[in-house]
Specification:
Layout lengths: L3 E10 L8 E8 L4 E6 L5 H7 L8 E9 L2 E2 L5 H11 E4 L13 H13 L3 H14 L5 H5 L8 H13 L5 E5 L7 H18 L2 E6 L2 H4 L5 E6 L2 E7 H6 L4 H8 L10 H4 L1
Parallel strand pairs: 3-8, 3-9, 6-7, 7-8
Antiparallel strand pairs: 1-2, 1-4, 4-5, 9-10
Bound molecules: adenosine-5'-triphosphate and magnesium ion.
Length: about 270
Amino acid sequence: MSLLTVEHLTIARASGRGEPLVDDVSFTVDAGEVVGVVGESGSGKTLTGLSLLGLLPDGLTATGSLSFDGRELLAQSRSEWERTRGADIAMVLQDPSSSLHPMLKLGEQLTDHVRLHLGMSKTDARARALELLARVHLPDPERILTQYPHQLSGGMKQRVSIAVALACDPKLLIADEPTTALDANLRTGIIALLDELRRESGMGVIFVTHDLAMLSSIADRLYVFRTGHIVESGRAERVFRSPEHPYTRVLLDAVPQIPWPLPKEIQQ
Ligand SMILES: Nc1ncnc2c1ncn2[C@@H]1O[C@H](COP(=O)(O)OP(=O)(O)OP(=O)(O)O)[C@@H](O)[C@H]1O
Ligand SMILES: [Mg+2]
């Protein structure tokens, strides 16, 4: 059984007006698997991710089935959703600043987060925060705890927001364009980190991006979104080698050449 089985997910305006924004989408994610979700702007990738956290914007509703780790997420009460978000499913966003408070030192933010979700003492939470920063390969975690977000580079901030997401050892991580704001070097670093985390902890990862090339070194399977539908899915290698849907071909043509798999020196 998959870690996550999404069946006939439809996200529409509660008013019933207009076409659904996500229309009858089905996909699965296994433990330890990286599933790439790719597609044009406005195709419903972020809304799909938010629905898995019970965080759809006001005025939108989800129907269908989101079966996670043996339970139906869409049947959850508000407090059950809170536990799911704290402990089981976490999301990393494109702009790490949006998940970090600009006026609070990172130490305060991380330890508060850990205390809130894991109910730890201040001392234990600080130790956990240091452990998390080390896990995402941030140098000098002690120093980072004393700094404000603006004192870190974009890549470092993104690592901190991944550390926040990992605080409760989620079984599923949704990474929504986690590397778009970063330069090429930092981008490959974050991808290598996500790859390592899924190997070490068996976490399932949904990696959302516009950029197919980005997925060539990490995704096991791909789902191609277009205007709220999945138009193609399959093993990443197959989709890269012989795309079936014309839209996937268009996406691939936008990437001059994707060697498969990427040479090791590029992956690092
Ligand atoms: N709160 C909302 N109310 C109504 N429509 C919305 C709302 N949020 C998003 N939408 C619409 O839903 C569609 C899907 O949006 P979504 O953010 O999921 O796209 P996306 O695939 O993540 O795009 P991008 O690649 O630009 O991030 C878009 O047409 C968007 O305009
Ligand atoms: Mg989006």
